[in-house]
Amino acid sequence: MTFLIAILGLALLVFIHELGHFGAARLVKMRPRRFYIGFPPALVKVRRKGIEYGIGAIPLGGYVKIPGMHRPAPSDVDVHLGRALEEAPELVSPVERVKHLLEQGKIVAARNALPPLRDAVERADLTPVARRGAARGLEELDDGLGNDAYWRAPAWKRIFVIFAGPAMNLLFAIVLFAALFVVSGGDATRTVDAVVPNHPAAQIGIKPGDEIVAIDGIFVTAPEIPTVINASHGRKVRVIVYRDGKLVSLHPIHAVKEQGSYRLGFILSGRSLNAPEAIWRSLRLTGDVTAEIGKSMSRLVTGSGRKQLSSPVGIVRGSSTALQEGVVRYLWVLGLISLSLALLNLLPLLPLDGGHIAFSIVEAIRGRSVGREVYERVSAVGIAVVLLLFFVGLSNDLGGGR
Q: What pLDDT, on the 0 to 100 scale, is given for residue 313?
C-alpha cells in the first residue's frame, strides 16, 4: 500500500509539472493538443474544446503536446507519408509540392497545400496502417505550420511555456515546506512525536510524548540528539527519557544505519512557526537544498557524486520508507523530490526543459532558428546523458553503487 501511495505521489509531481506547461501555453495562446498523465496507450481519454485529456497505461511520467515544437522539414513528410506513397504513387505530386514549399521556407503556402494533399489521401486506396500514418502526419504538419506553433512564437513565450513546468515543481516545494513548518514545526524539540515500527526505539519502548533527556550518559539538546546517536557508530547506547513526571532509563540498544546515518527510529516534534517565519524558513531550505544538489551534480563530473544518484525505483522506495515513518516525514520527502525534479529538468540538455530554454535563448541571440539537424544531434547526446544518469541511479538503487 505504501508503494502505491509513493507512486501516486510521484504521479502528482508529474501532473503539477505538466500542468505548468499546459497553463502557460494556454495563457500565451499556444493551444496544446493533448494533456496526458502517463504515456500511451491511453486507459481513459476525453476531448474538450479541441484538447485531448487522458491517462496513459505507462505510469512513468506525463506530457503536454504543444503544437509545432520544431519547424516542419521536408524529411517529416517522408517519415509520415512514406508508407502511403508506396501504396499510392498518385500521391507523389501533392507530397512533393508540400516538400518543395517547406524547403523554400514558404510556410503559408505549404500550409495551403495541405488540404489538396489531404483530399488526395482520402481518395487513395490505402491499408488502414498507411491511412493512419498519413492522417497522423498531416495533423502534425498542420500543427507545425499553424500560427500557434511553438517554433513560430517569440523567444520569451517559448521560454515562459517551458520554464513553467519546473517553476510549478519549485513553487509546490516552497509552499509544501512552508505549510509543514507551520503544521509540524520548524525547530525540533526533545519531545518524541512518532516512533518507527520495527526499529530500535520501538524495541526499547520509546513512546510518543517522551522527552529525550540523555543518550549514552550525555545530556542532550534537541539539535544534539541525532548527532550523538550517529556518533555511536552502531554500538549500544542507553536512552533516558522524561515520562509522566519521572526519569526512565531504557535498555541499551544498537542504533541501525539507514541512508548513511545511524538512527534509533524516532521522530521529534517541532515548534510551530507563524506564516512569515515559515515562508522565510521554506525559502532558506529551498536555497540550501538547491545549492547542495548543484554541488552533487558538479561532483558527478569527477565521479565522486555517483552514489548520490537515484532512479524512479529508488525514489519510490525512499518515499515508501518515509511514509512508514509518518505522513509528515513523507511530505517532507515529497517536497524534496519536487525540488529535485525542477532542478533536474533545468539542466541545459535536450530533451529536458533546460535544453529547450537554452536553444530558445540561442535563437533569440542569433535572430533565426537553429537547424533541425543540430536539434537532432544535440538531442541524441542529451538522451544518452539522461539514460546514463538513469542507469547509474538504478544500479545504486539495486545495490551496486552503495
A: 55
